[in-house]
Backbone:
């Protein structure tokens, strides 16, 4: 399979313009293997023939390749540190621009909106929430999540230092929770591909958590450069617990905000 994958992803890039060639090979191999099983295909060659001739089949494969796992206030201590150590400094700016890259189904963007609301900053903020997948962006825009998840999200919210009742942020029926409209008012959901797209603004805060773990080292370097160019001096970069600015070309350009949390401040 190792020899067949480069040809598969070269052909997908040529046909559709989606570039997965710099994703971590081990991760791609796992996802392709699983997709072959789901589709009942005997080989990578058969998959290549299928996706090049059938855009619907390509959409199914695209969904298998892109990871969309999220939760509200995931890693609560990260959000507690952001709430306690970053929002007081953000309050010194007249207007805030924040970017959640790789937002998946939107939970992290809404978590950020809640923190900004509780710091009286949401009304003078604009949160840009981007992802490669239009399908998950549609779900994110809706602000609708399974009601069964709200218990876990409430615990996360409380552990992250929430000082209100989490139930105030949504309405519910028997199956779903619908987030309050004011949380969506200052959010902009848009397609953006970290592999190929450029910076589109300057930001006070960028979150890209648990996304770069799926990229190879060269693509990680490119994304670090993109974020460095997109952050204002003294802006903040939030990464996932298995991600770091160490060993990047910009390691010396950041300082760690708090021990054990991947939250950095751009210092030059």
Residues:
């Amino acid at each position: 399979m190792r020899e067949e994958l480069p040809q598969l992803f070269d052909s997908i890039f040529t046909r559709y313009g989606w570039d997965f060639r710099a994703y971590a090979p081990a991760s791609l191999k796992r996802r392709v293997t699983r997709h072959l099983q789901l589709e009942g295909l005997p080989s990578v060659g058969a998959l290549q023939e299928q996706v090049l001739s059938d855009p619907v089949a390509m959409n199914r494969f695209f969904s298998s390749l892109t990871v969309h796992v999220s939760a509200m206030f995931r890693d609560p201590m990260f959000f507690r540190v952001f709430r306690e150590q970053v929002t007081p400094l953000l309050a010194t700016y007249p207007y805030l621009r924040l970017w959640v890259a790789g937002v998946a189904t939107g939970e992290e963007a809404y978590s950020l909106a809640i923190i900004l609301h509780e710091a009286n900053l949401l009304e003078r903020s604009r949160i840009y929430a981007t992802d490669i997948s239009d399908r998950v962006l549609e779900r994110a825009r809706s602000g609708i999540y399974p009601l069964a998840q709200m218990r876990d999200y409430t615990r996360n919210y409380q552990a992250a230092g929430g000082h209100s009742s989490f139930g105030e942020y949504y309405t519910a029926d028997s199956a779903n929770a619908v987030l309050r409209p004011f949380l969506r008012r200052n959010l902009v959901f848009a397609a953006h591909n970290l592999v190929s797209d450029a910076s589109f603004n300057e930001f006070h805060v960028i979150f890209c958590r648990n996304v770069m773990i799926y990229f190879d080292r060269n693509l990680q370097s490119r994304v670090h450069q993109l974020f460095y160019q997109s952050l204002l001096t003294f802006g903040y970069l939030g990464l996932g617990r298995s991600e770091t600015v160490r060993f990047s070309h910009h390691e010396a350009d950041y300082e760690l905000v708090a021990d054990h949390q991947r939250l950095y401040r751009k210092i030059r």
Notes: DSSP finds ten helices and ten strands in the chain.
